[in-house]
Write a structure and sequence with these properties.
Layout (H helix, E strand, L loop, with lengths): L7 H4 L3 E6 L13 H16 L3 E6 L2 H6 L11 H24 L5 E6 L1 H5 L1 H16 L3 E6 L13 H11 L4 E6 L19 E2 L23 H13 L4 E5 L3 H5 L6 E3 L9 H8 L5 E5 L1 H8 L10 E6 L6 E5 L5 E6 L15 H8 L13 E5 L2 E2 L2
Parallel strand pairs: 1-2, 1-5, 2-4, 3-4, 5-7, 6-8, 9-11
Antiparallel strand pairs: 7-8, 9-10, 11-12, 12-13, 13-14
Length: about 375
């Protein structure tokens, strides 16, 4: 079928990120489904042969490690999850390597942690590595580095990671493959539920219950994470298709399968803003007085020491921190210019006074406006 209308943007994309979930790659017992990997690799190879640069974000490491370790279900404790991932990641990539090699393609493993995308140096390094792999014709296979994650076993989920990777590599489309065939306006198990064909903006999501569970219990992401992933990608100008893994070829060809999320219009966030909003978590909190909240949120101003009333957490200059009011509501996140231990001595002081009393090095903002992103309803503002 020839792609027409809105979805032609996916069919004509020259660089595409495809994310596939654990439940689409493993059997119910936790074994890797080699037929699924072979089928997906063939789809990827066909698009690559057509001149499209492909990146895979693949879950499945923990799930693939269950059976070899004689685990009946996904473990709840971090140490066992990491053990399963360390066994499963090698199996997962070995199967991708073999399946892609049958089409003359080279698989390249990329394992990322939250910290890799929180620190600008690591972020830029990952960006350069992925770009060079694509230049060389390889197929990057990206996954959360579950074996060494210390804060949380998952990035949040691989759906969010996929959206960030799409921005990282400047992809022109993102395809989310799962064990569901799209977003529904109700419980898809009920006959009256209708598939949402196109999402043009937040108004099309109004009244839709997204639930929270994820398939057969081998994955971590549900519909909430997939829609949030679509929000991240579309805000960066990347259209998204959410569909069943069996429809991968049709989705990449622009056929009307699954749910299509249109790329957002208007001013798109820059790399730093998207990175701050979605690739970081606050390492601490800086509490603002009401005037500073208004200046930062409504006036797009920098945060000055005079507007700070409290500091929470242990962070150093350059870390991302959350900016909240005195009730605890977080209004923004930014890169702080001072260590947590320094700020209490600066609170309530003007930068002019600080420069005069402490020297020119102190005539700077706590957070510069170019280094912060504003939130609305718990999400970054577009």
């Amino acid at each position: 079928m020839r792609a027409e209308g809105e979805r032609a943007a996916v069919a004509t994309a020259r660089r595409v990120v495809v994310k596939v979930g654990s439940s689409s790659l493993t059997t119910a017992a936790g074994h890797i489904d080699t037929d699924r990997i072979a089928a997906l690799s063939e789809v990827v190879a066909r698009r690559q042969a057509a001149g499209v640069e492909m990146v895979l974000v693949s879950s499945g490491a923990v799930a693939a490690g269950l059976s070899p370790l004689h685990l009946a279900a996904r473990p709840q404790d971090l140490a066992t999850q990491q053990a399963a991932a360390s066994v499963g990641q090698g199996l997962l990539v070995a199967h991708y390597t073999a399946a892609l090699a049958r089409h003359g393609l080279t698989a390249a493993q990329i394992l990322l942690t939250v910290d890799d995308l929180m620190r600008r140096a690591q972020y830029r390094n990952a960006q350069r590595t992925l770009a060079r792999l694509l230049d060389l014709g390889a197929i990057p296979i990206v996954n959360e580095n579950d074996t060494v994650a210390t804060h949380e076993i998952r990035f949040g989920d691989n759906d969010r990671l996929a959206a960030l990777v799409a921005h990282l590599v400047r992809a022109e489309a993102l395809v989310l493959l799962s064990d569901v065939d799209g977003l529904y306006d109700g419980d898809p198990a009920r006959a009256q539920a209708q598939r949402v064909v196109t999402v043009r903006g937040e108004e099309d999501l109004a009244g839709i219950s997204l639930g929270s569970s994820g398939g057969r219990g081998v994955g971590t992401g549900g519909m909430v994470t997939k829609v949030d992933s679509a929000r991240i990608a579309t805000s960066a100008g990347v259209p998204v298709v959410l569909t069943h893994a069996d429809h991968a070829r049709a989705a990449l060809g622009g056929e009307p399968v699954g749910t299509y999320f249109m790329a957002g219009e208007g001013r798109r966030p820059g790399t730093r803003q998207l990175w701050l909003a979605h690739a970081t978590t606050g390492r601490g909190r800086v509490v603002l007085d009401p005037g500073a909240v208004r200046a930062v949120v409504e006036g797009s101003a920098s945060l000055l020491p005079a507007g700070v009333v409290k500091v929470e957490g242990d962070f150093v200059a350059g870390d991302p921190v959350d900016l909240s009011d005195e009730t605890g509501t977080v209004w923004a996140r930014g890169l702080v210019n001072y260590d947590a231990l320094e700020i209490p001595e600066l609170m309530g002081r003007s930068t002019r006074w600080l420069a005069r009393e402490r020297g020119p090095a102190y005539e700077r903002e706590v957070v510069h406006r170019d280094d912060l992103v504003i939130f609305r309803d718990g999400r970054p503002r577009p």
